[in-house]
Design brief:
The protein folds into 3 domains: about 210 residues, 3-Layer(aba) Sandwich (Rossmann fold), CATH 3.40.50; about 70 residues, Muramoyl-pentapeptide Carboxypeptidase, domain 1; about 150 residues, Immunoglobulin-like. It contains 10 helices and 19 strands. The strands form 5 sheets. The protein has a 7-stranded mixed beta sheet with strand order 2-1-4-5-6-7-8. Strands 13, 14, 15, 18 and 19 form a 5-stranded antiparallel beta sheet that branches. About 30% of the residues are buried.
Length: about 500
Amino acid sequence: MAIQARFLFLALLLTAVASCAGKQSAEPVIDVVQPQARPVHNLTSFSRALDCMDQLFIDHGVNNVVITSQGVPDATGEIRSGTKEMMISAISRMSTRSGAFRFVDYDQRQLDINALHNLVGFTADFLIPNYYIRGAITQFDEQVVSAGKSGGVSFGQFDAGASGNVTTSLVSIDLNIGDLITRQILSGTSANNTIAVSRERDSKDANGSIDMIELGFSFNMNMNRSEGMHQSVRTLLELSLIESLGKLTQVPYWQCLGSGNTSTAMLAQARGWYDSMSVREQREFVQQALSGKGLYSGPVDGASVSPELRAAIGAYQADRALLADGQINFQLYAALIDDDLQLGRRPAPPPRSIAHPEQAGSDPALTLALGHNRSDGSQYAVGEVLSITLRSNQDAFSYCYYQDSSRRVVRLFPNRFQPNALLTAEAPVTVPGVNARFEIVLEHPGAKEQILCVASRQELGLALPERLKGEDLVALPVDSLDAVESAFAQLDKTLVSQRVNIDVSLP
């Protein structure tokens, strides 16, 4: 009886517990699931290359270049990625220590920020960028290659099998850089790269490879901690920025991609940079480079090849197994840019800020000299070609306009072949330039024509009335050069202007 009583007591206890459990099971149960993966830094195959570019900008003296962009939209409509934020992150990493680039965030879609900005207005601190980046995800070919495999075994009544496939997709990005004021796309700054992304079924892992035909080498990467396609876009964008900004600033960016200055493509790139420099710029570059190496202690002015500079060039050429003739040539330039340079700080294009004339009172007076190829006072003959020369005593922004005998007014400078309005102090600029594809031919006997040039410490191009923002070398809807000069004077009371009269002789 005692044993039976214990079982009865236990049975009653279990029944009570079950009853309570039944009542509790009716209550909602919250199942909290914690993330299993820890946060990680977003690293790509070019993270170290971005740091390398930062050092390269320091070595080559690149700093304070103001730039902007609306991002890289997806022209294919297939990939949605925050490319603008990716771009800002990459540019910031390339400028951490060098201060090479300053990014101006001006996006018409940021309604709240723009509303606040309109309340404050444009101040002296607002910077108009020197350049803008434009581009797009131009190609997305999904599953261009698909490979599958399967297999199975059977043992009597037991069967087992497995299958899988791998697909490869292609993504391409095109980038270009333009001058903000003239809206001219700068030749030689484009980047066009494609990435191939391979993905296995039921997996978020991805492998990618980038072929850079222009450079002649490729990159491989693993993207096992992210969704492969969007990480591919980040990787591809970083590579394209390294290439485009390296071309813009003319630094040997290929060093940061693990390639020396030996391939035909890289030599062609360097050759283009060298040929675009004036003789004075070539001398100044060599002076800076050899000064940074401790081989030259003379002035860095590009004025002439002194005996001291010639000796320094010869010593460097002998050390690099070049012909030690003391001459400045492409072989010397190519060796220098491929070397470990310390060029120091060189002036970047000045930020284009909104004009505030009252702040310029304490500066030395700005002067502008305007000459032409008949400055001796003689008349031009019919059919003769006209050219002008500009020179300012300070860095300044200049605009030149031409009024013909019928009072038509066109903008001569800046133009599509000379898109930069900046005049470097004491450096003459001839219009049309050497590479310009137009001439000013005087055709009307007895004609009296005129040229107006203005110069200002501030870039006034964006603030001009719309009628003066027309295309270069095309008639503008204004009555005379007086209207043009008046429009500029309203923007900057301290600007200077010069005019020259052009007389064509009678037959």
